[in-house]
Amino acid sequence: MTRTFAITFDYLCPFARNANEHVLDALAGGADWNVEFLPYSLAQGHIEEGDPDVWDRDDPYDVSGVLAFAAGLTVRDHWPEHFADAHRELFAARHDRGEDITDRAVVRAALDRAGLDADAVLEIVDDGEPLTTLHKEHERGVRDHEVWGVPTFIAGDRAVFVRLMNRPDGDGELARETIERVLDLVVGFPELHEFKQTDLPV
Where do the DSSP E strands lie in 65-166? Predict the structure, then answer.
């Protein structure tokens, strides 16, 4: 049976990178899933009371993570066949390359590495459409599922924040098994509210 679920992301978060890579590698390996990749802005989630929302700032793309969000969402919605590569490269720019993803040149280079026409993507970014998408989808996650962080897995009426410590490194079977375990807990064990390791594995 086809699994249907959503996973939240913010390119700022290393745990979001881990979980999203597992999903991407599993899909590349043939996992029979219907997945929605949903943005949740950590910057918006941590604004101080009285401060304007991220998307209402004079220059929202100066806010950490927002420019990368806009690029990723543009690719997801306009060039979905390239989304997996762009998603990986935007995470990699932040976490593997240690680059500043508020820098337009960094985002452009990530799009180039993903095989995209960066000018075409950034033209849509500059039009503001993906910023509106970020606003709507972030608020939908908060309103409908009380999402407060990344990565959150959403299946049916359940939403669960999950941290995976490892990366799949291209192993599609490992990735599939890992995400299937997570989903089994999300949809099959609603009585489990919290399960957190007290120390980090060595």
Answer: 152-155, 158-161
Rounded Cα distance, 117 and 113, in Å:
10
d(Cα 6, Cα 157) in Å, to the nearest integer? 11
CB 70 within 8 A of CB 61: yes
Phi, psi of 99, deg, nearest 5: -95, 165
What does the pLDDT read at residue 151? 98
Phi and psi at residue 171, to the nearest 5°: -85, 95
Rounded to a whole number, what is the largest CA-CA distance in the chain?
49
pTM: 0.96
Tokens of residue 141, six digits:
């996650």
The tokens for 128 are 């503001």
Which amino acid, residue 75?
V
User: Token pair for residue 56?
Assistant: 């209402």
pLDDT category of residue 64 using cuts at 50, 70 and 90: very high
**Strands ordered across the beta sheet of 158-161:** 33-39, 3-9, 152-155, 158-161
Mean pLDDT, rounded, for 99-118: 98
Strands 152-155 and 33-39: unpaired
**Omega before 151 cis (within 30°)?**
yes
